Amino acid sequence: MYETFYNLTSKPFQLSPDPRFFFNSRGHSRAMSYLRYGLGQCEGFIIITGDIGTGKTTLIRNLFAELDQTRIIAANIVTTRLGADDLIKMITSAFNLPYEGMSKTALLRQFEEFLRECDRRGKRVLLVVDEVQNLPAASVEELRMLSNFQINNQPLLQSFLLGQQEFRQTIQSQGMEQLRQRVIASCHLGGLDESETREYIIHRMKHVGWDNDPVIPEQSFIDIHQLTDGVPRRINVFCDRLLLFGYLEETHELTPDVVKMVAEEMKEEVSSPFNAVKKVPASMEHDIAQEMQKLQQIAQQVTSPSEQPVTGEYSEGLEVADPNKIQNIRYTIESLEIAIASRLNTLKQLVDSIEK
Hints:
The protein is an alpha/beta fold. Helix content is 55%, strand content 11%. It is built from 15 helices and seven strands. It has a five-stranded parallel sheet with strand order 2-3-6-1-7, sandwiched between helices. The protein has a two-stranded antiparallel ribbon with strand order 4-5. It is globular and about 65 Å long.
């Protein structure tokens, strides 16, 4: 509708992940570097986590768009709560191998032979598992077992795991030590900052032929960032509605007042992602108390000698230079930082709701 009104070649803010619109923010650039590094290493796991809507799937679509398909055979699966056996079937199906009526043993033998055949043909096999936080621990362990297929000490399967931040807790749980030892790089995607949000909007608008129509004042970019927390999917949803509103009102300038009107309109909608926190029920004080309690629990984890050897034991660990121990400490610290940031953000939103 609004494309013709603003002389755009297509919609710039669709929800479907599209590598043509990939925006190389600092976080996404780092994640892409890790994925490319993983491809070069030909072994181990790369883990990318991120909150909902931060662009993990778009990241993978962008990676697939640049893969040399003459050298790499890649498959991407999106998981639900699959058991280990069903996961093997899904992986087998993703590589276009038969699986109906086959036992798990037969499936694994077939998959190993597939990997060896690819190796003989000079091709490498890449498996990308999206929404990996949905997998039970036993299924995650099954993924690790697949990495045991080797020839001349060279792994035959490279795996990238993408999921929400809960997965970081999964790999910290007991029984995941062997997986943690095989992770060669990981990073977490968050929202864009104020400057990146502005660049992201302009990037997508220019991709569809934007020629400063509609005009977007600087303050409108700032307001959009505050309304969306810089989460790409939220930005897409909001900006699509903003352009539709501008078209319906026949305006060629999306002023801060227009941004405010769209925000108010979306707050009243049941499906809007912008009112979920602001429509907190009367038990707001109880919600805040719960968040404070969770923060205290996180703080206890940080200070607990049994969990974090931050005193003499920490020094001893460094002296021994056990790489697994150091890696575990790094993962724990990163997970705690993310958890604290998430809780603080929730608290901030609750406080904002009270003030309004």
